[in-house]
């Protein structure tokens, strides 16, 4: 479908690569890479060969961004996308992947909380050191 033509009945408007880039924060190059890497299925094209993203494409990209934010590797994202492309017969495998990733994420969160506690202790220590010094000198009280 080309820009400016009416949509067929029941068809949602599609988005250009620029619109998707703006909405997702991904660059045009990253969107093209995601398609080449198999993270997103081949995006529809206009008669002029311009990419046109549908709402489902955008929803999938948003999910991929969440996976990326949680530290999932590109290889695992590709594996997940491949399973998804194979359909409902892979639901159990996808669920297992997400559960394992969630468990890894939970452990990283626990580790970050422990690290934050160590930093808080060190910050408190240095704040006490500053309070113990006389104003205008480096000498302790």
Give a brief outline of the structure:
The chain is an all-alpha fold and 141 residues long. It has helices at 17-24, 28-36, 55-69, 74-86, 91-132; strands at 44-45, 51-52.
Explained architecture:
The chain is an all-alpha fold and 141 residues long. The protein is built from 5 helices and 2 strands. It is elongated and about 75 Å long. The N and C termini lie far apart (77 Å).
Q: What is the quaternary state of this protein?
A: single chain
Strand order of the largest sheet: 1-2
Biggest sheet architecture: 2 strands, antiparallel
What global shape is seen? elongated
The residue fraction in helices comes out at 55-70%
Strand pairing plus helix content: what structural class? mainly alpha
Low-confidence stretches: 1-7
* Mean pLDDT level: 89
N- to C-terminal distance: 77 Å
**Secondary-structure element pattern, one letter each:** HHEEHHH
List the total number of helices. 5
Strand content: under 5%
Count of individual beta strands: 2
Using the CA coordinates, give the radius of gyration.
24 Å
Sum up the structure in keywords.
2 strands; elongated; 141 residues; mainly alpha
Draw up the topology in text:
Blueprint: H1 17-24, H2 28-36, E1 44-45, E2 51-52, H3 55-69, H4 74-86, H5 91-132
Antiparallel strand pairs: 1-2
């Amino acid at each position: 479908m080309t820009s400016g033509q009416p949509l067929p009945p029941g068809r949602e408007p599609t988005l250009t690569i620029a619109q998707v880039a703006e909405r997702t924060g991904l660059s045009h190059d990253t969107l093209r890479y995601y398609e080449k890497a198999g993270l997103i299925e081949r995006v529809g094209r206009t008669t002029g060969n311009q990419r046109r993203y549908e709402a489902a494409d955008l929803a999938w990209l948003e999910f991929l961004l969440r996976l990326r934010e949680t530290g999932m590797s590109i290889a695992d994202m590709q594996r997940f996308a491949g399973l998804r492309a194979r359909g409902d017969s892979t639901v159990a495998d996808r669920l297992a992947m997400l559960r394992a990733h969630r468990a890894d994420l939970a452990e990283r969160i626990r580790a970050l909380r422990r690290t934050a506690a160590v930093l808080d202790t060190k910050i408190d220590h240095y704040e006490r050191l500053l309070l113990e010094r006389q104003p205008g000198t480096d000498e302790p009280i």
